[in-house]
Design a protein that fits this description.
Distance between the termini: 76 Å
Number of strands: 12
Mean pLDDT: 88
Largest sheet: 6 strands, mixed
Helix content: 25-40%
Radius of gyration: 23 Å
Shape: globular
Structural class: alpha/beta
Low-confidence stretches: 1-30
Number of helices: 9
Strand content: 15-25%
């Protein structure tokens, strides 16, 4: 009887010890199987790009920083491609924990998902062939063939507000637009200046394209989470820390510096520029 009491007590102590070990947030060995799934773009140089060596870009750096603040190391991140047309659905289905993929905060999108941030203020611009001297203002896009990416609002904004006679040519991704722009199948590609600068700076396209310099809209990049998710407040705190410790500045320089991209200062959380 005495032996059974000792054994039971020992089992209780052992169970408590195991529980304490499992609850230790800083002990990565106890949480080696935990993962966080993050949606990014796979084809946007300077922002979110899949390469033979892994993933790189400003959005990737921001997402990695946030994940670390949430308690996940780089090797615990599972990256998923989040195309523009799929982002809300991916969040609603729970395919990803959050999305950092040049995801502009808009009232329509806020009906379906929540946003942390913004973490970058970009502006819509137009990419042209370097030898194009016909398009000098947004109005010159009338009758021009304008690349439109499924799920993105950029080209439709131009047609609705600036150049109603623009001919929208649908393509699945921005990277798919570039050969068409180069060979004349389309006359212009419009999206955020941060994205366009990344494309224009690629070695295979250097000297072939130019930014028009139109600041057509304000694009407030946010991190999308499922509606009602408690991750929103945690991500906002992480973004504030990223700005405060200068990691945000470093990420901007590392990813946009080669393209001479003139970025806006880091926006304050919740400050949406219309």
């Amino acid at each position: 009887m005495k032996l059974r009491k000792v054994t039971a007590a020992s089992a209780t102590v052992l169970a408590l010890a195991l529980t304490a070990t499992a609850c230790g947030g800083d002990d990565s060995s106890g949480d080696s199987d935990k993962k966080i799934t993050i949606g990014i773009k796979f084809d946007q140089p300077g922002l979110g790009q899949k390469t033979p060596d892994g993933y790189e870009g400003f959005d990737v750096d921001v997402a990695t920083y946030v994940a670390k603040k949430l308690g996940y190391s780089e090797d615990q991140i599972e990256w998923k491609e989040s195309k523009s047309a799929d982002r809300e659905t991916m969040l609603q289905r729970g395919d990803v924990d959050f999305i950092a993929a040049t995801y502009s905060i808009t009232p329509k999108r806020e009906e379906k998902v929540d946003f942390a941030g913004p973490y970058l203020l970009a502006h819509q611009d137009v990419l042209l062939r370097a030898d194009d001297d016909k398009i000098k203002s947004p109005e010159d896009l009338n009758d021009a063939k304008l690349c439109s990416v499924t799920g993105s609002t950029s080209a439709q904004n131009v047609k609705d507000k600036l150049a109603p006679d623009a001919q929208l040519q649908p393509y699945p991704t921005y990277s798919a637009c570039l050969p068409g722009l180069q060979n004349g199948a389309v006359d212009a590609l419009t999206t955020d200046d941060s994205i366009l600068a990344g494309y224009a700076a690629q070695s295979q396209f250097k000297g072939k394209f130019k930014l028009a310099g139109f600041k057509l809209t304000n694009e407030n990049y946010g991190i999308g989470v499922k509606k009602g998710s408690d991750l929103k407040d945690k991500i906002n705190k992480a973004l504030e820390e990223m700005v405060a410790d200068k990691s945000w500045d470093k990420a901007v320089k590392d990813n946009f510096g080669p393209a001479n991209y003139k970025n806006e200062p880091a926006p304050k959380i919740g400050d949406i520029k219309s």
